[in-house]
Specification:
- The protein has a domain at 22-102.
- The longest helix is centred in the C-terminal third of the chain and has 97 residues, at 105-201.
- It has helices at residues 72-102, 105-201, and strands spanning 22-23, 29-30.
- 61% of the residues lie in helices and 2% in strands.
- The chain is built from two helices and two strands, in the order ββαα.
- The protein has a two-stranded antiparallel ribbon with strand order 1-2.
- It starts with 21 loop residues before the first strand and ends in a 10-residue tail after the last helix.
- α1 (72-102) packs across α2.
- It is mainly alpha-helical.
Length: 211
């Protein structure tokens, strides 16, 4: 079994940077490939500036994205970046409790001062929050009292209106009853007068025989 032949023009050849073009046999001209400039991650270990993460398929200073640009330098940069960030996180985590236990007297005093300031700030914030809460409760209480006062006043006004309406209704009923009584008495008196007049004009014992 024979392997397929390799065509020379299609085989990529990489030459280091700053190498002039070389004319080889079979009239093949090889152009040097320029790799992107990557910052040294070791210099950024002690600095606080952010370290950018590079894309292995699209390094900086390269406009065309090709798979051939995926170089170990970019992966090394990303790995160094991850290591530096882990070191920074570890350092910042251990710096929190290093000063109060293993620091100098000035560092311990500074730590105590910072703790006191934080406690004072927390007490002030708590006091402000308590005052705000009391003010809110006072406003709610005042609002509830005002609502209750308005409700009581409205109920009293309704009771007064109802009492006035009932008094008017009572007085009107009394007037109607008195008027009915007067009409009934007048009717009875008129009937009595008519009966007397009838008896006078047509007496029952007009012959005078009944005694």
């Amino acid at each position: 079994m024979r392997l397929p032949a390799i065509c020379i023009p299609c085989t990529p050849v990489y030459i280091p940077h700053n190498t002039p073009p070389v004319r080889q046999s079979r009239s093949l001209v090889v152009t040097p490939v320029t790799f992107p400039i990557i910052s040294d991650s070791a210099r950024l270990q002690t600095s606080n500036q952010s370290i950018p993460r590079l894309n292995p398929l699209h390094p900086p200073h390269v406009h065309t994205r090709t798979v051939s640009l995926e170089t170990p330098a970019v992966h090394h940069h990303n790995h160094q970046r991850a290591v530096i960030l882990q070191r920074r996180e570890h350092y910042s985590y251990h710096q929190v409790w290093r000063k109060p236990f293993y620091g100098s007297s000035s560092e311990r005093e500074e730590y105590r001062k910072e703790v006191r300031e934080q406690l004072k700030r927390q007490m002030e914030e708590k006091s402000v929050a308590l005052k705000l809460q009391l003010a809110t409760k006072f406003k709610e209480t005042a609002f509830a009292r005002e609502v209750d006062r308005l409700a009581v006043s409205s109920d009293r006004e309704k009771r007064m209106q109802h009492s006035k309406a009932m008094m008017i209704y009572r007085d009107e009923n009394k007037r109607l009853m008195e008027q009915r009584w007067k009409d009934r008495a007048l009717t009875r008196s008129q009937e009595a007068l008519e009966e007397r007049e009838l008896l006078r004009l047509n007496p029952i014992n007009w012959s005078g025989t009944l005694k």
